[in-house]
Amino acid sequence: MVNGPFIDASARIEAAIASILEFAATTQDPEFIERITKLAIKKEIVLELLLDEIGDIEDEDECECSGTVNATAPNSNITINGAEDTGDVTFVGEVCPDCSVEGSSLTFTFTDDTPTPNNSFTLVSTSIPAPTCVIGPTGISLNISGLGVVTRADMSTVNVSFFVTLSESTTPGEADSFFISIESEEVGNPFEAVYFSPDLPDNAIVVEECD
After folding, report:
1. Fewest CB atoms within 10 Å of the CB: 25, 114, 171, 172?
2. What pLDDT digit, counting tens, does each position of 68-122 carry?
3. 5: cis peptide before it, omega within 30°?
4. pTM
5. Cβ proximity of 65 and 206 under 8 Å
6. How far is it, in rounded angstroms, from Cα 198 to Cα 74?
7. Rounded distance between C-alpha atoms, residue 37 and residue 25, angstroms
8. DSSP string computed for 49-116
9. Dihedral of the CA atoms 16, 56, 129, 11 (nearest 10)?
10. What's phi and psi for 9, nearest 5 deg?
């Protein structure tokens, strides 16, 4: 199994990545947000590869934590292919139900307020591995790197990779939130989207440790 000190160090790295993403969201600078998001995804991939190399994982289907999301956010700002757009967002699904990756699924939908051009799309996950989890003094976060398919408004599709953070506050009165970035895996079929949710009601996101 992966040793304790390495797990502790990994948790600190995850917390740092989450803090950087939160700061980027406050800048309202699409180019800066996109650059920081890509950097965070690369760091997440490297960390996952290190975890795979160092530890002999006994059961890859077991999860550190589980999470559910059922969120709606009207009139939200989202960055699509480097340009900011506005519309309605819905995000539903569950990760590691019963603390097993089997049955995990996520669906993210953006409905464009301005139909010319119509940048509406829906992401449906096709592969979600076990997440990494960060437990802090004021909340718990679940991080996922997965694969899926995006269907655009014109019904064209693109295979994508995505990164999601579900953050639940354990402090009374503090809001929950989520972050998602999506990037095409196909040469010649570009697609990118980055979205930071506004503050959400407490029941919109639930993240719990697995026993």
Report:
1. 172
2. 999 999 999 999 999 999 999 999 999 999 898 889 999 999 999 987 889 999 9
3. no
4. 0.73
5. no
6. 10
7. 10
8. HHHHHH---S-TTB-SEEEEEEEEEEEEEEEETTEEEEEEEEEEEEESGGGBSTT-EEEEEEEES--T
9. -10
10. -65, -40
